[in-house]
């Protein structure tokens, strides 16, 4: 993880500068793992986030606000009881371990000064936040562990002890002789030797040490080479930990955060980067975007699951109706049987046989045909039974055909959402898709889930906007609501509308401004239509285009559904990406 002991050491200095001698004004616990302390100092209030999230444990100052629960969790209430109004007097780190201790001075009910600590252990899934008294007796912890659950119980009243896994050497204090012994006793890679034996060293930092030492061998025995690594390690630690020479840097890839560190890492030269004036602002942006991305992925997966489940149900329903239509092919046979029994009734006698042989008046040669009978019914009743079977199958066929027409519309709608979901890049895109699914009752609304009036945030995304090589504006819908807006409200009658032929996808509009659109612009718009559709990365994709005045939306149809005429078709190969298109931010 990027938040190693070296980064924590550099961050500690910023936290000391910003928070020490400040007063705790407010305390919140916005979720199961996170505590927010609002500390007032020198006329301003800073929010300290401490999170023991198993996936993203962290501590930093952030200006961003979060929604807090109406009823504070028990741990939050205990923190408030013990620390509200307390003075934050010190912040300490256990060597270069990812353990931070925050010291507070409070007053007892009798007015005596008391010392209490928040101890934050940043250790992946074992991360925890403790509140302890001056004797290091646990008052409470955000995650409790009983005697049965752990050899190191975490319960109120139990003495706080350091985690038993702290057996690595402090890299600041390690001697060269000890350092050499690490390499002599292991055949692992140099990076793994560093992380296995030294505390507070992440994989990223270890890679940086090796890279700056210009060591490229995987197995080391030469002490001169080991010395270069040792010197590189000590120099980096001296600059970051001792002198505080940092350059907080955030690394991204295709808009998503990859990593951050207290210095600009040479091992990350391939990634776009952004420098920050301090570590807190760098860490804040990293975790904000990380959380946004996590929320985005989780919501997209949820919506994808909803869409896939409904497509599967509809597909099964479609097949069932196809089967009913296949079965209805026997209807004419049953009607024929009924007609022939009645037509031959005057010359037939009741029989105990399970069939009757009659003249087939429908055949050219008037041959005979055997008709199955039910023995407990007379001939007339058997004829009536065949007529009933005929009527039943014909009604089922008629109903199945209506059902199939509706199912096809629903499938087209869901498949269009599926295509749009695949192209979604922002949380607002997903919220619009979610809104469509709610309106069509594929998922419950927030009001139904909460049992109260739904309060939807007013987060609206804008359509994609491109400028063609000829200078024409091209707009692409991000969701079906936008598709309707672009086509039915935004575009003028002489703008050009494009859509993949019989393939779910976005509506594309070329703003003509009553000018003739060049072929190059038309092709570029068709390429965008193919890219933002289910035909992504396909070859020979048919894209229909026509003037907007020829596009109509039938009443009571689902969002994004339209009909059109007077169209032409252009064939394009869908692009792998749209990096070369001139997109307006």
UniProtKB/TrEMBL annotation:
Classification via Gene3D superfamilies: 1.10.8.50, ibrinogen binding protein from staphylococcus aureus domain
Domain NFACT RNA-binding stretches: 462-556
Alphabetical keyword list: Coiled coil, Protein biosynthesis, RNA-binding, rRNA-binding, tRNA-binding
A GO BP entry: rescue of stalled ribosome
SUBUNIT field: Associates with stalled 50S ribosomal subunits. Binds to RqcP.
HAMAP family recorded: RqcH_B (MF_00844_B)
Annotated function: Key component of the ribosome quality control system (RQC), a ribosome-associated complex that mediates the extraction of incompletely synthesized nascent chains from stalled ribosomes and their subsequent degradation. RqcH recruits Ala-charged tRNA, and with RqcP directs the elongation of stalled nascent chains on 50S ribosomal subunits, leading to non-templated C-terminal alanine extensions (Ala tail). The Ala tail promotes nascent chain degradation. May add between 1 and at least 8 Ala residues. Binds to stalled 50S ribosomal subunits.
Protein name according to UniProt: Rqc2 homolog RqcH
Gene source species: Caldicellulosiruptor acetigenus (strain ATCC 700853 / DSM 12137 / I77R1B) (Caldicellulosiruptor kristjanssonii)
């Amino acid at each position: 993880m990027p938040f190693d002991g070296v980064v924590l050491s550099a961050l500690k200095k910023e936290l000391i500068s910003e928070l020490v001698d400040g007063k705790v004004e407010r305390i919140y616990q916005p979720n199961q793992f996170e505590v927010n302390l609002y500390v007032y100092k020198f006329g301003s209030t800073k929010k300290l986030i401490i999170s023991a999230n198993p996936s993203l444990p962290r501590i930093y100052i952030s200006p961003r606000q979060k929604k807090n629960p109406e009823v504070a969790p028990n741990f939050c209430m205990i923190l408030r009881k013990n620390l509200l109004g307390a003075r934050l007097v010190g912040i300490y780190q256990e060597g270069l371990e990812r353990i931070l201790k925050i010291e507070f001075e409070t007053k007892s009910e009798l007015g005596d000064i008391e010392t209490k600590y928040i101890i934050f252990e940043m250790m992946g899934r074992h991360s925890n936040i403790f509140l302890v008294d001056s004797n290091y007796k646990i008052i409470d912890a955000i995650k409790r562990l009983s005697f049965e659950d752990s050899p190191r119980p975490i319960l109120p009243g139990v003495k706080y002890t350091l985690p038993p896994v702290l057996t690595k050497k402090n890299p600041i204090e390690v001697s060269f002789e000890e350092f050499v012994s690490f390499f002599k006793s292991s055949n692992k890679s140099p990076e793994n030797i560093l992380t296995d034996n030294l505390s507070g060293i992440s994989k990223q930092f270890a890679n940086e040490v090796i890279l700056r030492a210009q060591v490229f061998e995987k197995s080391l025995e030469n002490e001169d080479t080991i010395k270069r690594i040792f010197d590189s390690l000590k120099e980096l630690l001296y600059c970051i930990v001792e002198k505080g020479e940092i350059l907080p840097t955030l690394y991204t890839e295709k808009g998503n955060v990859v990593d951050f560190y207290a210095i600009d890492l040479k091992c990350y030269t391939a990634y776009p980067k952004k420098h920050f004036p301090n570590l807190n602002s760098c860490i804040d942006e990293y975790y904000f975007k990380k959380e946004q991305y996590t929320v985005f992925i989780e919501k997209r997966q949820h919506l994808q699951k909803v869409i896939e489940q409904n497509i599967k149900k509809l597909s099964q329903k479609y097949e069932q109706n196809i089967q009913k239509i296949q079965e209805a092919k026997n209807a004419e046979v049953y009607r024929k049987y009924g007609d022939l029994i009645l037509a031959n009734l005057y010359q037939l006698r009741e029989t105990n046989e399970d069939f009757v042989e009659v003249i087939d008046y429908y055949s050219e040669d008037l041959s005979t045909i055997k008709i199955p009978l039910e023995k407990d019914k007379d001939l007339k009743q058997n004829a009536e039974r065949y007529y009933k079977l005929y009527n039943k199958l014909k009604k089922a066929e008629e109903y199945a055909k209506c059902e199939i027409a509706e199912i096809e519309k629903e499938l087209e709608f869901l498949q269009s959402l599926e295509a749009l979901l695949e192209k979604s890049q922002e949380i607002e895109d997903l919220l619009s898709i979610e809104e469509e699914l709610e309106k069509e009752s594929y998922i419950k609304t927030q009001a139904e889930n909460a049992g109260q009036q739904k309060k939807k945030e007013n987060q609206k995304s804008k359509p994609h906007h491109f400028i063609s090589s000829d200078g024409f504006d091209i707009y692409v819908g991000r969701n079906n609501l936008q598709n309707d807006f672009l086509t039915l409200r935004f575009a003028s009658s002489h703008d050009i509308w494009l859509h993949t032929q019989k393939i779910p996808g976005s509506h594309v509009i070329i703003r003509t401004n009553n000018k003739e659109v060049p072929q190059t612009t038309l092709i570029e718009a068709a390429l965008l239509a193919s890219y933002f559709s289910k035909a992504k990365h396909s070859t020979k994709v048919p894209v229909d285009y026509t003037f907007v005045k020829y596009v109509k939306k039938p009443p009571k149809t689902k969002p994004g559904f339209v009909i059109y005429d007077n169209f032409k078709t252009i064939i394009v190969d869908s692009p792998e990406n749209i990096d070369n298109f001139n997109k307006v931010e």
